[in-house]
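Let us work through a complete example step by step.
Step 1: write down the sequence.
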Amino acid sequence: MISQELYWTHTYPLLQTILNVEGDILELGCGHYSTALTAAVSGSRRVMCVDTDKGWVDSLAEKYKSTPIEFKSISHHHEEYEEQIKPYTKQKWGIVFVDHNIITQRGPDLLRFKNQAEVLVMHDSHLDNPNDGYCSFEAIQSFKYYIEHKLYWPQTAVMSETNDLSWLQ
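Step 2: predict the structure and record it as tokens.
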């Protein structure tokens, strides 16, 4: 059995981001911790949760049916994923949270939303190990501002091109 300790370590930086950044929220990969936190503190903002596991999406959509959160299942296959994620890149987001299970898409997604989101938050960032397989090391370091929150492992990176992240210390 996998320890539940690993799944919540992004909550502090994500909460701080939600409290300090305005605008709509896109979750790439939804879950009990991030989606519950977002539902609790996002206020009237649009929240879109996208995941590649249809059963998981359906389960969470049922659990959060009394909230205004929107849920969408998309394909995990590379070409289909690339096509289905495009509509989300056509709008501006206050926050994009990256925690989906397609690890080879995490770096590309950071770059894809680099100029579409004020702030991006990525769980499992592991900047101390650039060869961890998450394909995000260079993408994270390409941002003008980035902080890796190392209080808990696995770490969480917060990135932006425009927000200096001074509120996150």
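Step 3: interpret the result. The chain has six helices and seven strands.
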